[in-house]
TrEMBL record:
Biased composition (Basic and acidic residues): 30-42
Record Pfam families: Cytochrome_CBB3
Transmembrane segments: 6-25
Region (Disordered): 30-53
Start and end residues of each Cytochrome c domain: 49-123
Name this protein carries in UniProt: Mono/diheme cytochrome c family protein
Keyword terms of this UniProt record: Electron transport, Heme, Iron, Membrane, Metal-binding, Transmembrane, Transmembrane helix, Transport
Gene3D superfamilies named in the record: Cytochrome c-like domain
Amino acid sequence: MGKSSAYISATILFLVLVVGFTYWLSTTEEHAGGGEGSHSEQSEEGGDSAGGEAEQIFAQNCASCHGENLGGGAGPALDAVGGNYSKDEILDIIKNGKGGGMPAGLIEGKEAELVATWLAEKK
């Protein structure tokens, strides 16, 4: 195995570990009381609760690749994704993944809908 192959393998392993760790953290928070209860408490506090909830879901599941400020990283920038894709197209990508690195099903159901709606507003 050459240096470039070893580098690629190490990079892929690192990304898999980061995504796995992020997923583990999100499920650990849910079991520790940071899941649905927190979401409803946040909604009761007022403000843009759906957008705030979508941001929190994004931070827990997507920011490790797409950046905390949607500026990109291992994955593409999403700060203007709504100018290129509709909510339904974004939801399809979240559900089914996209070739080149976006895995399918990192978030599902209502959470995927919230994030897709929130991202579609980014133009």
